[in-house]
Amino acid sequence: xxxxxxxxxRVPSPREVAQAAGGLTVGLADAIxxxxxxxxxxxxGTHGKEDVAPVPQQTEQAGVTYATIELTSRQHRGFYQGFxxxxxxxxxxxxxxxxxxxxxxxxxxxxxxxxxxxxxxPLLRPDxxxxxxxxQLFPLGAALRREGVSAKVGFFLHIPFPPEQLxxxxxxxxxxxxxxxxxxxxxxxxxxxxxxxxxALAAVGVSVRARAFPIGINPxxxxxxxxxxxxxxxxxxxxxxxxxxxxxxxxxxxxxxKGIPERIRGFERMLQRFPAHRGRVSFLQxxxxxxxDVPEYKALRRQLDELSGRINGEWAEIDWLPLRYITRGLPRxxxxxxxxxxxxxxxxxxxxxxxxxxxxxxxxxDPADPGVLVLSRFAGxxxxxxxxxxxxxxxxxxxxxxxxxxxxxxLAERVRRWEALRDAVERxxxxxxxxxxxxxxxxxxxxxA
Length: 449
Ligand code: ADQ
Description:
Blueprint: E1 4-10, H1 14-19, H2 23-32, E2 37-47, E3 57-61, E4 64-72, H3 73-92, H4 103-120, E5 129-133, H5 140-146, E6 152-156, H6 164-167, H7 173-179, E7 185-188, H8 191-203, E8 210-212, H9 219-230, H10 233-242, E9 246-251, H11 260-273, E10 281-286, H12 295-315, E11 323-326, H13 332-341, E12 344-347, H14 356-364, E13 372-376, E14 389-391, H15 396-408, H16 411-427, H17 430-443
Parallel strand pairs: 1-2, 1-5, 2-4, 5-6, 6-7, 7-8, 9-10, 9-12, 10-11, 12-13, 13-14
Antiparallel strand pairs: 3-4
Helix pairs in contact: 2-17, 3-4, 4-5, 9-13, 9-14, 10-13, 11-12, 11-15, 13-14
């Protein structure tokens, strides 16, 4: 295989790649090790000079060339905040009602994809294999073809793909689907996503077919981190504060797709319906703020501030805090240790491409005394992790019952379920995912541009 060219909206810094422990970066870091690679994307910086064409800034580290461009503030708003996060993200997560469509933003999205293609073009070599990532870049393959690129180009969608009728309610959907025809390979997370996308592609007469490549983590390294993290001083403080109480843990970016308010209501329902747990369990929700400039995210944050305040106000005792809610990120090692200590991992997205947190919770457990995973049936991870307690995240009663079941589960059943989950998490890792996608891309016939 020729040189690998990775394109993603944001390019991690060399330091982030070296220290990566999360899905995309780890998977790619493993895949690109020892292989000449160019990683191209947005630097994260903006400027106000509309009439200046961006020049890629290149740095090199450990055999990887990082090339990034800046966007104008207008492009960043329309392409990233607007079309990608305000329109495509809700639609792909089945939330048509949250879409704030504007044609102007669609146009800026297409413009930035063309800009990406034009800036990448001079850096490409004929035998390169290009791998494009995620919903910000649906049209990039077509834009590259328009610039005359004949290299193999593959695409991977990290988020869900909704049913055909839902996706095609998005103005511009047919255009995006037709652009997918320029890719030699289209990968998605699950068989359901592939079926949805293939129905949508067939409806607009596109012959390329999506295939499922579920993403994984690096379970061995996460397990090692969890063992070390459990001894970190932050964890000693948490354990002391819990004072022997069982810990229920939620870890997510602050995003409406993650079902955080619904989950907190499920926890409250458990306190109402199963009084034996009052005073004996504590729920820790870690949810660092993300996309704070998008209005729906601001609204969600306000909602959670209010909900968490109300629940603690209503249920706390002077010596018991039912809910701890943190909107900052925690260092990865600390987080891994907290996962290990948690009796229940509560992962209840309303819709999720995969959800790596569920896999990380499994990897972090003590094999001799593992905790229980409560998982939404709408996470992409659910088909692989069927030995979790699966719930419908929209039903607070189901969450309450699952929590009660998890908290009361005996050691033998916990071990049996966890061993099956661990096998699943070890079967598909970040590295095997990247290898599988690249092998498939290597194996396909080059499509006509
Ligand atoms: P995300 O929506 O970001 O990813 P997820 O798969 O859970 O969701 O990955 C998040 C990563 O960030 C995990 O490695 C997690 O440990 C870390 N993280 C999350 N919350 C954190 C916190 N509070 N503090 C520190 N770290 C935290 C998108 C898609 C997913 C898909 C991935 C990978 O939305 O569905 O699984 O890409 O393809």
